[in-house]
Amino acid sequence: MNKIEKSWYKPIGLLNIALLPLSGLFWLVSNVRKVLFKLGIKSSYKAPAPVLIVGNIGIGGNGKTPFVLWLVPYLQSLGLKVAVISRGYGSNPPHTPYHVTEESSAAQAGDEPLLIFKRLGCDIVIGGDRQASIEYLIEHNEPDIIVSDDGLQHYQLARDIEICIIDNERRFGNGLLLPSGPLRELPSRLKSVDLAVYNGSVKEDGYSLCTSGFFSVKTGQRAQEYPSKGIAVSAIGNPSRFEKSLQANGVTITQNKHFADHHMYSEQDFEAYTKQPVFMTEKDAVKCQSFAKDNWYFLRVDAVPSEALIEKLHCLLEKKGIIGHGI
């Protein structure tokens, strides 16, 4: 994290106050844009299939991807054909819309879309033009429902269900809008979403993140044995959560190496760690598999929602007519 990002999760200081005029401008531009969509001056695209958005009001490290990795199979278990769209932050596809395949690289698809594809094998299309991505999916795959990975603030896309993921530990930081704080919208936005879901909460509207073993970065196979200590490398929004999970699984961290969220790794990033064991997240691993060493491991993490949250989601899908009653 840089100095500004670190200040978001501390009591409000001089740096945050100095940035308030920019936060005010951010609020003005964002709200004018929302009003234009609300009044119909700017038009929204209504997809022919239901759209479910999983997003957040803050930036980075909210645990959104693990929830999507649980949500897609859950929707499939209800008999729905599910496809995913993503902006593909940090990606460089040869064209857009870009359909992620087995041949896709992390550089082409982006880390999170490639992780979703590798884990689930579902149809996932990336591109900044979400309408074009949806039209591609409708033409080629005919999904029953489309899950938008992020895009809560993308009001150009009409949505049937909004799910907002909140980090139960960090919550809203100092509660200020960018760049004085970590928020893209104020907490009052939660009143209008269909479900506000707390990552790390055991309460009814939450889910926990549970580790499910270490895997080889090189092969993707579960590691039956792994070292008891090594270097923790991560390029995620909240590296401390990952490092705590490593320690909880018996790994002694000899050194931490943090990169910016979505950093696209190269072999040069690891030149200083040629012989030492390296531990990383699954999101990091998809970007390192092509040059990984035998002693590199990733810790897999799965979202485990409360029964009450599953029930709320099921009722919401019935209410919106996405599934029939009794399914």
From TrEMBL:
EC primary class: transferase
An individual GO BP term: lipopolysaccharide core region biosynthetic process
Pathway in which this enzyme or protein is active: Glycolipid biosynthesis; lipid IV(A) biosynthesis; lipid IV(A) from (3R)-3-hydroxytetradecanoyl-[acyl-carrier-protein] and UDP-N-acetyl-alpha-D-glucosamine: step 6/6
EC nos: 2.7.1.130
Sorted UniProt keywords: ATP-binding, Kinase, Lipid A biosynthesis, Lipid biosynthesis, Lipid metabolism, Membrane, Nucleotide-binding, Transferase, Transmembrane, Transmembrane helix
Transmembrane segments: 12-29
Reactions catalysed: a lipid A disaccharide + ATP = a lipid IVA + ADP + H(+)
Cellular component annotations (GO), alphabetically ordered: plasma membrane
InterPro entries: LpxK, P-loop_NTPase
GO MF: ATP binding; lipid-A 4'-kinase activity
Binding site for ATP: 58-65
Superkingdom of this protein's organism: Bacteria
Function comment: Transfers the gamma-phosphate of ATP to the 4'-position of a tetraacyldisaccharide 1-phosphate intermediate (termed DS-1-P) to form tetraacyldisaccharide 1,4'-bis-phosphate (lipid IVA).
Family to which this protein belongs: Belongs to the LpxK family.
NCBIfam families: lpxK
Protein name as it appears in the record: Tetraacyldisaccharide 4'-kinase
Gene: lpxK
